[in-house]
Write a structure and sequence with these properties.
Elements: E1 7-18, E2 24-32, E3 37-42, E4 45-47, E5 59-71, E6 79-87, E7 93-102, E8 108-116, H1 123-128, E9 141-151, H2 167-181
Antiparallel strand pairs: 1-5, 1-9, 2-4, 2-6, 3-5, 6-7, 8-9
């Protein structure tokens, strides 16, 4: 019976991405859950818009996420799988990184940072592509997923998370807009 089953609500936003070399970025994401989780509402997959931030600033993706699961057990707890892509100056779409983070298991406001990685490829592929250092020498890249609110009925050890500041992405966006509008 559905009324007696615990439920999991994940409501949040993919805010932005930092430390990527490509001039414009977008993200594809999906929630992956085990057989103990049945999707009741929401879209478990999606794609953000493409942002072209000034050099050194965060790409603002600002994409909402909202999924609702019925839970039979905690085995197979949902994960957020991230694929970050960029568009180079010739309009080609290039993989910028993969990442995965576990949905927090405690109720409340959480800020998640999903660090990503990218395969180097073979030696031939490394030399034929644009010059870039191998994976071990690349700066850490991250995708910021704050304002994720989870409501859970099952408990496990809590994750280290902090409450998010909603004004940070908005203030960065307003500074960027005012810089563009200034003569």
């Amino acid at each position: 019976m559905l009324r007696d089953q615990p439920e999991l609500h994940v409501i949040g936003e993919i805010v932005g991405a930092t430390d990527y070399e490509l001039p414009s970025l977008f993200c594809k994401f999906s929630f992956e859950a085990g057989t103990n989780f049945r999707l009741l509402q929401g879209l478990p997959t999606g794609q953000t818009h493409c942002d072209m931030p000034p050099e050194g600033e965060m790409a603002i993706l600002s994409h909402p996420v909202d999924v609702h699961y019925a839970v039979k057990g905690i085995d197979g707890w949902p994960r957020l799988r991230i694929e970050v892509y960029g568009v180079d100056r010739y309009g080609r779409i290039e993989l910028a990184g993969y990442g995965c983070c576990i949905v927090p298991t405690t109720a409340g406001m959480h800020e998640l940072r999903c660090h990503t990685w990218r395969p180097c490829g073979s030696m031939r592929e490394q030399f034929s592509s644009a010059p870039r250092p191998p994976l071990a020498h690349e700066p850490p890249r991250s995708l910021l997923v704050p304002r994720a609110r989870t409501s859970v009925a099952a408990t496990r050890p809590s994750l280290t998370a902090r409450a998010s500041d909603r004004s940070s992405a908005r203030s960065l966006l307003s500074r960027r807009r005012s810089a563009v509008e200034a003569p």
